[in-house]
UniProtKB/TrEMBL annotation:
This is HTH gntR-type domain-containing protein. It comes from Blastococcus jejuensis. The keyword Transcription applies. Residues 18-85 form the HTH gntR-type domain. Pfam families: FCD, GntR. Transmembrane segments: none annotated. It comes from the Bacteria. PROSITE patterns: HTH_GNTR. The keyword DNA-binding applies. Gene3D superfamilies: GntR ligand-binding domain-like (1.20.120.530), Winged helix-like DNA-binding domain superfamily/Winged helix DNA-binding domain (1.10.10.10). Keywords: DNA-binding, Transcription, Transcription regulation.
Length: 240
């Protein structure tokens, strides 16, 4: 990934926010999840607050919320950093998704409406397999495809859980994309997206679950977990 200058104005200014803390939370969270603020980076609180147009007090409240999500670390001196990537967390995210994503796909195949199927097809039509340096729009489009399947499962708790896992996984996807993706890998991903749609369209719950299981196993999140584990072992870190 190429380092970029954080722009706390990246979030749509038209979005309504109940409090200044909510505004700061949304802006800083977007910067972290998009990779604008990289793992381990110091969060320049005064600069961020000034750019957002708030004082440091609501910003600190936002940082405490982000710490609860595991995205920010705060020390005793109130210094803040973006939480580093962690091989164990990466592995655990993949383990959860290997069970929950196939469940969502299976349910979607039997519960989806015609409107929901049309929504999945529309997103699929514009979906591109992610390159090594995807735009934020490409990343969001990838999420919209999976989110459309989650919604079609008609299980609110499952969708909420998967949305949270997706948020946490975004940083790991970007980490995996630091390695170039070859055309075969991108073609495989595109084919799996097509097969997912067809299984959901045909009401084939077993096929939908099977394709999604393979999709998660070969996902960018899984590659990030392998990459981080390898880095940890080379550095002599703990084998947790």
């Amino acid at each position: 990934m190429h380092p970029r200058t954080p722009d706390a104005r990246a979030v749509d200014d038209r979005a309504p926010f109940a409090t200044k803390s909510d505004l700061a939370y949304t802006r800083v969270r977007a910067l972290i999840l998009s990779g604008e603020l990289e793992p381990g980076a110091v969060l320049p609180q005064a600069t961020l607050a000034r750019t957002i147009g708030i004082s440091t007090t609501p910003l600190r409240e936002a940082l405490r919320r982000l710490r609860q999500e595991g995205l920010v670390s705060l020390d005793a001196h109130r210094d803040a950093r973006v939480a580093p990537l962690d091989a164990t967390e990466a592995r655990e995210l993949v383990e959860l998704r290997q069970h929950l994503d196939p469940l969502a796909a299976s349910l979607a195949a039997t519960r989806r409406s015609e409107d929901e199927l049309a929504a999945i097809a529309t997103v699929l039509a514009g979906l591109e397999s992610l390159s090594s340096h995807p735009s934020l729009d490409q990343l969001e489009h990838h999420r919209r495809f999976h989110a459309a399947i989650y919604r079609a499962a008609h299980n609110a708790l499952l969708t909420e859980a998967l949305d949270g896992l997706w948020d946490k996984s975004d940083r790991y996807r970007l980490h995996a994309l630091a390695d170039e993706r070859d055309e075969a890998d991108r073609a495989r991903s595109a084919e799996e997206h097509r097969l997912l749609f067809e299984a959901v369209r045909d009401g084939d719950s077993e096929a939908a679950a099977d394709v999604m299981r393979r999709h998660v196993a070969a996902s960018l999140g899984a590659r990030a977990a392998e990459r981080l584990t390898g880095d940890q072992h080379r550095d002599g870190g703990p084998d947790r």
